[in-house]
């Protein structure tokens, strides 16, 4: 099948044509494009050969468009501008000038003060928009894996198939009870199996990273943890614990939030258990400059907050 005329054209031919048309000479076009005058003349010659018509005629020391040249110019200038606009849109993203950065975030990140990260980032990059997509870590990891998100901050463990995982900080998970007697010693899986339990993240259930850790420990002992009540939100679970309905688990960072009820007591697990936070990206994916900058700032922020939490313990 014969090639169409458009397939025979090159971007450099269009640039040379448009420059010569605007400036009225090959020499001026060459100076603007920073190439030699013969190079411009050669590109125009190839363009005319591909189209089968002369686009310019000599006019004194310059050139003037023919009828064919004027018709071609109507479309060529728009096409070249569209290509330049398309390239500029990518440049804006790679150089962190404008655009929206979307990043996945584990469910319920309030204790880690990501609002402070957003404020600082947007002060430095006011023309960029941020989108924090908050879901359970397993769901967020799936969206990164499928290319729907560039990156995410998750709680481990997750399925790491086709993902690069970079752990950054961790936070101890504690046992929470309204009964001080139950927190005098470290909590064991055996004790949990014999205690009424309040679980949160009901939608995610055993896909929740902490519940996965608990389930794996129980399974290793031949036990099964069965909650008395499951709810979606941590604050509701804590209010039920405060009412004496049962006990729960909680990342220690959340014990410092306003909704943490008075009168609750905590103990470490035996052995100690942690939320491990990690940045995940798709294996082999090239991140935009904006996302690389955001991830650098995110890691610095998470480490700073983790240090502050450690100092308060």
Give a brief description:
The protein has helices at 11-23, 26-33, 37-51, 67-94, 114-124, 137-145, 189-193, 209-220, 234-242, 289-312, and strands spanning 56-59, 62-65, 99-106, 128-135, 151-156, 163-177, 198-199, 229-230, 248-251, 265-282. With 313 residues, the chain is an alpha/beta fold.
Show the helix and strand layout.
Blueprint: H1 11-23, H2 26-33, H3 37-51, E1 56-59, E2 62-65, H4 67-94, E3 99-106, H5 114-124, E4 128-135, H6 137-145, E5 151-156, E6 163-177, H7 189-193, E7 198-199, H8 209-220, E8 229-230, H9 234-242, E9 248-251, E10 265-282, H10 289-312
Parallel strand pairs: 3-4, 3-5, 7-8
Antiparallel strand pairs: 1-2, 5-10, 6-9, 6-10
Protein name: LysR family transcriptional regulator
Domain HTH lysR-type: 9-66
GO molecular function: DNA binding; DNA-binding transcription factor activity
């Amino acid at each position: 099948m014969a090639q169409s005329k458009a397939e025979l054209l090159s971007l450099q031919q269009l640039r040379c044509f448009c420059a010569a048309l605007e400036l009225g000479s090959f020499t001026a076009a060459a100076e603007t494009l920073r190439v030699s005058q013969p190079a411009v003349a050669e590109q125009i010659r190839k363009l005319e050969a591909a189209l089968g018509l002369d686009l310019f005629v000599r006019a004194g020391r310059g050139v003037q468009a023919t009828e064919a040249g004027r018709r071609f110019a109507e479309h060529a200038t728009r096409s070249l501008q569209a290509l330049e606009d398309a390239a500029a849109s990518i440049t804006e993203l790679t150089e962190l000038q404008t655009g929206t950065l979307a990043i996945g975030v584990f469910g319920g990140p309030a204790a880690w003060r990501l609002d402070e990260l957003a404020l600082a980032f947007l002060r430095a990059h006011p023309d960029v928009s941020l989108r924090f997509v908050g879901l359970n870590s397993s769901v967020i990891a799936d969206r990164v894996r499928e290319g729907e998100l560039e990156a995410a901050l998750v709680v481990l463990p997750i399925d790491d198939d086709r993902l690069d995982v970079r752990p950054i900080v961790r936070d101890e998970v504690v046992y929470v009870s309204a009964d001080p007697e139950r927190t005098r010693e470290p909590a064991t899986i055996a004790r949990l199996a014999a205690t009424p339990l309040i679980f949160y993240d009901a939608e995610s259930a055993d896909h929740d990273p902490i519940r996965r850790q608990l389930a794996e420990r129980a399974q290793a002992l031949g036990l099964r943890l069965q909650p008395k009540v499951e709810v979606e939100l941590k604050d509701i679970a804590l209010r039920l614990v405060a009412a004496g309905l049962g006990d729960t688990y909680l990342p220690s960072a959340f014990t410092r939030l306003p909704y943490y009820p008075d009168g609750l007591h905590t103990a470490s697990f035996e052995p100690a258990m942690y939320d491990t936070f990690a940045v995940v990206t798709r294996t082999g994916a090239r991140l935009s400059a904006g996302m690389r900058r955001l991830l650098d700032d995110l890691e610095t922020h998470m480490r700073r907050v983790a240090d502050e939490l450690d100092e308060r313990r």
